[in-house]
Structures are given as structure tokens and as C-alpha cells.
Amino acid sequence: MFLKRIRVSGNGKRRTYWALVKSIRTARGPRHQVVAYLGELQASERAGWAHVGRILDHRAEPILPLFDKAEPPEPVPQNVEVRVRGARVERTRDFGDVYLGLTLWRALGLDALLERLIPRGREAVPWSVVATILTLARFCEPSSELHIADTWYERTALDDLLGVSADEVNKDRLYRAHTRVLPHKEAIEKHLKERFVTLFDAQFDLMFYDITSTYFEGEAKANPQAKRGYSRDKRPDCKQVCIGLVVTREGLPVAYEVFDGNRNDATTLEEIVETLEKRYGQARRIWVLDRGMVHEENLTYLRARGGQYIVGTPKSMLRSYEKALTDKGWTEVEEGVEVKLCSGPEGDETFILCRS
After folding, report:
1. Do 128 and 118 form a contact (C-beta atoms < 8 A)?
2. Which helix (H) or strand (E) holds 148?
3. Fewer CB within 10 A of the end CB, N or C, for the chain?
4. Are 217 and 130 in contact (CB under 8 A)?
5. How much is the pLDDT for 44?
6. Who contacts 287 (Cβ-Cβ below 8 Å, separation ≥6)?
């Protein structure tokens, strides 16, 4: 399938539309069959699709071009009469977002990776494909597995793009896919790191680490990590788990860990640092942490390993820098935001003053 340009003239105006088409064989020879009409695409949108095409060009297997430059469009009648009362629209489906998500999924090589990690057995739908559906749903319209199976999937063009009918997508199959994918968490994270370097020239010298939480409806008796703790969702009545996420300066995810729901944020740092060093080797990384991680034991731990850090500090410490706040020497890092570097009281740390 590929995107095809359609030009239409009427009322003295000339418009260009795009459609997703596929080639089919007929008794009269090959013909183009429209899968979905995409409407007009702005210049920025066309540039985005072209960029995706350039990414795909680096793959070993042949890729069909997104735009049919070599093939002139079929002539379109200049005047078309339409009986409006007799026209109707049937089974409209979402295409653009799922196509983009699927393109990124394949550009990252996750389809081939999961096919290798989870060999196909007797299941009707390969687990690697079910994982693709789950990820695209999270990318396009975050929702429950029940919503994906009952509503979302049937509303998209994924049945044509993936070759999986809506009848084959049910909540039980979606739930079981999580169990199949989870054992390969470390392999997936390593693979993503390598692809981030190749595709986006990602840097891993600056790591942002933070904690969030997610709660459960019900008692969650089968989950030993589900406990009551500080709820960021304002649901202290529910059990929860804490999730630690590490991302690069570009916001690309590198690793995550799940902790007990009553775990204090500051106690997770050593575990995260050692996990990354075990996986990617020890390096002189700069860790960016919020105030919840600021604990003297954590800072001592990072210094002992030769690590650097940028952490949030209490506003009360501004009193120690009243003179520096009024002096000159500020640097504007973006519109309305200025910073200044100052030595700490002991001389072994540098403080970043920021004003807006």
C-alpha cells in the first residue's frame, strides 16, 4: 500500500487530496483500490511523512515509497454530478494515527525483535502482533484492554494494516500478551537504547529520573507489591505501586522499575543507578533529580561513584544567596528564564540560581 495524490478541479479551484491505495490484480490487469481517503495534507504533514520515509529507507528489506512520484495520477473527471440524498458514508475508520504509530514501531525494529524473542506457537494471533496492538492503542488512545477489544480496534484500519480481524482481538488475548512480553523487558530496553542512538543520535550523559504511582481498583491480593502509600492520584484509599522511569535529555525512555506502593522515593535511587550500570556499564553520567530524591545518603552515594547530579533544593536556601540574586552576571537560557552559577557554602558544590 502507498499514498496516492488525487487532484480535483471545480468551481474554478484546483485541490489536491491523498488516499491510501493498494495494487490489486484484475482481469484487465493491475488496478489501484482505495483503502482510505486521507483528505488534504498540509506542507508540514507532507514533510513529516517524507521524514518517516527517509527513516524507513535505512531498513534492509525493500520499502514501498510513501508518495507515488514516479507514477502520474489517473485522470479525474472535471465535472462530477453527485446525488447528495443518495450518498452515505459507511464504516469510517481511523487511519493516520495508527499508521504513524505502526511506522515508528517498525522503524524502531520492535516488530522483528519481538518475533525473535517470542517465537510463534499454536496461537491464532502471534504474541508479537498482539503486543503491537497494545502499544499502538497506548500511543493513539490510552485505554483499558476491554475498551481496545470492544471499541477502539474495530474503529481503526489496523485489521487491514496488520491482517488481524476485530473478532480475533479480545480482552483475554490482550491481557495474556503482557505476561508473554514482560520476561523480555531487559532485552527490549537494550534494543531501544541502540535504536535511539542510530535513529536520533541520542546522548546518555544526562539522565532524568523520577517516580510516579498508579493505583488499583479492588484489593489486588495477588500482587505483593500493591500497598497503600503516598498517592499522587489523590486515592489514598486504594493500593498502588510506584514506577521509576529514566529518560534521556530528549525524553526517550531508557529503563523503568516497579517498586512497592509504600516505597519512599529516595530509597530507590541506588537500585536504579546500579541497574543502569549493570546494563550499560559505569559512566560519568549526570543525574537530574527532584526534591523527593534529595537525601544526603543519595548524594554521598553518587559522589563516591564519581557521578554528578543536578537536584532541586529548598527555597529556604535562597537566603544564603541574597547578594548573588541582586548582582549581575545572569545568562538567559530561554525567553524569560535566566540562570547563574554560584559556589556552595563549603565550596565543593555548584548551585544553579534560576529566575523567571
Report:
1. yes
2. none
3. C
4. no
5. 58
6. 207, 209, 269, 273, 302, 307, 308, 309, 310
**251 vs 36, residue with greater confidence:** 251
pLDDT at 60 over 50: no
Angle between the N-to-C axes of helices 110-117 and 185-200, in degrees from 0 to 180, rounded to the nearest 10: 160
Cell of 267: 530509597
Taking the CA atoms of the chain, what radius of gyration do you get in angstroms?
27
Name the pairing type of β-strands 308-311 and 286-289: parallel
Which of 242, 250, 232 has its CA nearest to residue 272? 242
Phi/psi at 324 (nearest 5 deg)?
Answer: -65, -30
Contacts of 213 (CB under 8 A, 6+ apart): 229, 230, 231, 232, 233, 240, 241, 242, 243, 261
Length of the chain: 356
Angle between helices 96-107 and 43-56 (to 10 degrees): 30
Burial of 112 (C-beta count, 10 Å sphere; 0-12/13-18/19+): middle
pLDDT tens, residue by residue, 213-228:
999 999 999 999 999 9
Query: Per-residue pLDDT averaged across 66-87, rounded?
Result: 66
E strand intervals along 81-141:
none
Nearest to 356 by CA among 326, 335, 327, 342: 335
C-alpha cell at 204: 546518555
Which H helix or E strand runs over 257? strand 253-260
Query: How confident is the model at residue 75, as a pLDDT?
Result: 65
Higher pLDDT, 94 or 30: 94
Give the C-alpha separation, 237 to 215, whole Å: 9
Distance separating alpha carbons of residues 90 and 25, to the nearest angstrom: 25
Q: How confident is the model at residue 43, as a pLDDT?
A: 60
Nearest CA-CA partner of 199 in 50, 45, 59: 59
User: How far is the CA of 289 from the CAs of 167, 244, 282, 294, 305, in angstroms?
Assistant: 46, 12, 19, 7, 17
Residue 256, number of CB atoms within 10 A of its CB: 14
Of 1-10, 155-164, 183-192, 253-262, the least confident: 1-10
Cell digits of residue 345: 557554602
Taking all residues of the chain, what is their mean pLDDT, rounded to a whole number?
84
